[in-house]
Amino acid sequence: MGKDSQPQPDSHEALVATMIEKMGRDAAMQLDTLTQIHLLVMNATSGRPDSVTDYQAVISQVRAAMGGAFAQRYERSLRSKVDADAASQQADLARARETLGRSSNGQPLVSERELAEFIGSGAAAELLSDLSPEVREKLETLGKKR
Q1: Spatial separation of the C-alpha atoms in residues 24 and 99, rounded to whole Å
Q2: How is 59-121 classified by DSSP, letter by letter?
Q3: Helix or strand or coil: residue 6?
Q4: DSSP 3-state assignment of 39?
Q5: What is the per-residue pLDDT across 92-139, written as a single tens digit (0 to 9) for each?
Q6: Which of helix, strand or coil describes residue 144?
Q7: Distance between CA atoms of residues 75 and 15, nearest Å
């Protein structure tokens, strides 16, 4: 999300912003963080009874501060956020394992396809434009030697 764009009305970011307006930044951020942590613990423990109780206690704080309808929307957004974060972490782990596998097998860390995509996307040109002229010149010299 760009710095000028607004979050979607029921996005987690928008709901936390609403909490901040009502509760103040520190209280809202602390409650949001605790809620996320308790949901993660509950998920990690497969809904162990004490983790469910702890999670429900924190959600009840959201309900008390913001109302029942808001708490339902918040809980949906929180679950979506936690699920998306977990999926992203799994994807990062898969990429790290792939890179480790390539490295362990003496293969290049980047495939020709990935390199072509990087160059074709314009990201390579953007990266090179950020380098100092001296570094760009060295890279170009190294490229010509190959």
Answers
A1: 43
A2: HHHHHHHH-HHHHHHHHHHHHHHHHHHHHHHHHHHHHHHHHHHHHHTT--SS-HHHHHHHHHT
A3: coil
A4: helix
A5: 999 999 889 988 998 888 888 888 898 889 888 888 888 888 888 888
A6: helix
A7: 10
3-state secondary structure of 133: helix
For residue 16, give both structure tokens: 């936390």
Closest by Cα among 91, 90, 36, 73 to 58: 36
Over the stretch 2-28, which tens digit does the pLDDT of each residue have?
455 677 878 999 999 999 999 999 999
Q: What is the dihedral of CA 35, 41, 42, 43, to 10 degrees?
A: 110
Helix 12-23 and helix 25-44: axis angle, to 10°?
140
Q: How far is CA 74 from the centre of its chain?
A: 18
- Residue indicated by tokens 């501060």: 65
pTM of this prediction?
0.66
- The C-alpha atoms of residue 53 and residue 38 are separated, in whole angstroms, by 9
Q: Which two tokens stand for residue 73?
A: 């929307």
Q: What angle do CA 68, 82, 70 make, to 5 degrees?
A: 15
